[in-house]
Design a protein that fits this description.
With 226 residues, this protein is mostly helical. It has two domains: 100 residues; 81 residues, no CATH class. Helices cover 72% and strands 0% of the residues. It has five helices and no strands. It starts with a helix and ends with a helix. The N terminus is likely disordered.
């Protein structure tokens, strides 16, 4: 296996991590080996020149090793430069892919938010319509009180108690225990501290109104019987 083959790895494989750090480690190792050979080269050359026995063969071998080591260092340096460039390109591509995914998530959430706003607006419109109907029918019920009779109290037909029931209903339906997340519906109102940790225990608006209606009918029917 050649140096380039070892650097590149098997054809068709995809690097699982950055290549530059490993190539740099190999380069440092090759440079250290080259430095050691260059240190030996001077003495070997001197021994060969002065005619020491076997020195010429050792010098020739050292020269071949030096040439190979220099070639390896040059190759690894080039490979490291390419690896740095490739790693940076990979990181850039990965960041772009992540950003694309994040942008898709942002778009999805904003589209859902827009749809929620449309639905909320429609729900508020309907709630307003029913609120007005509740006020109107309450007022008409009182106006229809039989002649000679007095409208009973505690029937929840007046505007202020109805408003209070609406605010309590908003709290019942939107608040968590203790309203710790602060996400209770705007205008929501806790009717009493006893419900702070159990908002679901608040009497429902419809039930409170129905109780008031039944109370009114019972009182008026009893008076009529007299």
């Amino acid at each position: 296996m050649t140096i380039l083959e070892a650097i590149r790895g098997k054809p068709g494989t995809k690097a699982a991590q950055a290549q530059a750090p490993e190539i740099l480690r190999r380069l440092h190792s090759a440079e250290a080996e080259l430095a050691e050979l260059e240190t030996q080269h001077g003495n070997a050359a001197l021994d060969a020149i002065v005619g020491e026995a076997g020195a010429s063969d050792r010098l020739n071998t050292l020269n071949r090793d030096l040439a190979k080591a220099r070639d390896s260092v040059a190759t690894l340096r080039a490979a490291h430069d390419a690896a740095v460039e490739r790693d940076e390109a990979t990181i850039t591509a990965q960041r772009a892919a992540i950003r694309k995914t994040q942008m898709a998530a942002v778009r999805k959430h904003l589209e859902a938010r827009d749809a929620a706003a449309v639905a909320l607006s429609a729900a508020i419109e309907e709630a307003t319509k029913q609120y007005h109907a509740l006020l109107d029918r309450s007022a008409k019920a009182q106006a229809a009180c039989p002649v000679g009779m007095t409208w009973p109290i505690s029937t929840v037909c007046e505007t202020d108690p109805i408003r209070k029931l609406v605010r309590n209903e908003l709290f019942r339906l939107s608040a968590t225990a203790g309203n710790r997340d602060g996400r209770a519906f705007p205008g929501a109102e806790l009717p009493g501290s006893e419900y702070e940790w159990q908002p679901q225990k608040i009497v429902a608006l419809a039930d409170a109104i129905k109780q008031g209606s039944e109370f009114a009918m019972n009182k008026l029917a009893g008076k009529a019987a007299e």
